[in-house]
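Posting this for the archive.
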Amino acid sequence: MEIRRYAASDFDGVKALWEEAFPNDPPWNRADVAIPAKLAFQPDLFFVAVDGGAVIGSVMAGYDGHRGWLYSVAVRQACKRGGVGTALVREAERALRALGCEKINLQVRAANEAVVKFYSSLGYAVEDRISLGRRL
């Protein structure tokens, strides 16, 4: 397995991965919208895990000079529990740290206990915060 920056040739693989990993995501989170938006802003913070030429994982990160964020951390179902997710998160952390980032945030759906457990095993903690949002 190789972790590397996203390339245009990865689009179909990432799209298929996200359709498997996030089947109920809203339209604005789908590959056709999210990938071009990411490529327009901090494209060097978009990583894929590739095995045998196939995309098996992804992570997008962002940094605003104050905090870093992780988005779209996904691993093919058949590849889970093989260290792919951990390797992707660690690569995103490395890239954010290199930019001077000292804190990383991420959001997880409250009902997704398995993902909360995964991030907890990597040193992330549930914080006493309320997440607010607004679509523009």
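The chain has one domain: 2-107. Residues 2-107 form a domain with the Aminopeptidase fold (CATH 3.40.630.30).
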